[in-house]
Specification:
The chain has 203 residues and is α+β, with helices and mostly antiparallel strands. 38% of the residues lie in helices and 20% in strands. The chain contains 6 helices and 6 strands; from the N terminus they run αβαββααββαβα. A hairpin with a 2-residue loop joins strand 4 (132-138) and strand 5.
Length: 203
């Protein structure tokens, strides 16, 4: 915390008496670190993280050790940044390839069920998920038209959910705005009475 906030190295001879060492660690008997040297991982003013070395003996590290660690951290930050760029580019290419393949296969789909199955197949390649449902908007109702990973697809074939005026999903349909929530159970209008949605946490 302190190192990342101040963007400065920290040499802590005794973690029991230094306020820069986080309080939870000082109170946890399972954490045996007695002396610590920590330096920020920074590249072009962008903080990537913190490199921390610790020892079970008090006063184990010296100022010269902190200087060496700081030098190593500079090289590590550059290497981490290169790796992050590589991984981001890899994800971008994977996404672009999946979308391109999806578009190429579209002309060969002649039924709605084939189209929905193809959609789920490519969605999973981009970001794996456990269950998927494609709803089509019919006036004030969401009508289930395709499923993936649902235990009883036959039951979903007749699922029709009414959206009320204050429903949290209405902006998705009326304003074409993306919607993401990490805890569905806290949404008062989530369809908790629909068996297929029981236990869902994120959407």
């Amino acid at each position: 915390g302190w190192v990342l906030q101040h963007r400065e190295p920290a040499l802590i001879p005794n973690t029991a008496t230094d306020a820069r060492w986080y309080l939870r660690a000082r109170q946890d008997a399972n954490i045996t670190s007695k002396s610590v040297v920590a330096v920020p991982l920074v590249l072009q003013r962008h903080a990537l993280g913190v490199l921390t070395l610790s020892h079970t003996k008090v006063n184990h590290f010296a100022e010269t050790d902190a200087s060496v660690v700081a030098s190593i951290a500079e090289q590590a930050a550059a290497a981490i940044a290169r790796l992050q760029l590589y991984q981001a580019e890899k994800r971008r290419r994977k996404l672009a390839n999946a979308i391109a393949e999806f578009v190429q296969k579209l002309p060969a789909t002649h039924t709605q069920s084939d189209l929905l199955a193809l959609s789920f197949q490519h969605f999973w390649r981009i970001f794996p998920f456990q269950k998927g449902i494609i709803f089509l908007w019919d006036r004030d109702y969401l009508v289930a038209s395709g499923t993936y990973g649902v235990p009883s697809p036959a039951d979903m074939a007749t699922l029709s959910v009414e959206l009320y005026q204050n429903d949290f999903a209405r902006p998705l349909l009326e304003k074409s705005e993306p919607l993401c929530t990490t805890n569905l159970q806290n949404e008062e209008s989530w369809f908790k009475d629909v068996p297929a949605f029981t236990g869902a946490q994120s959407w």
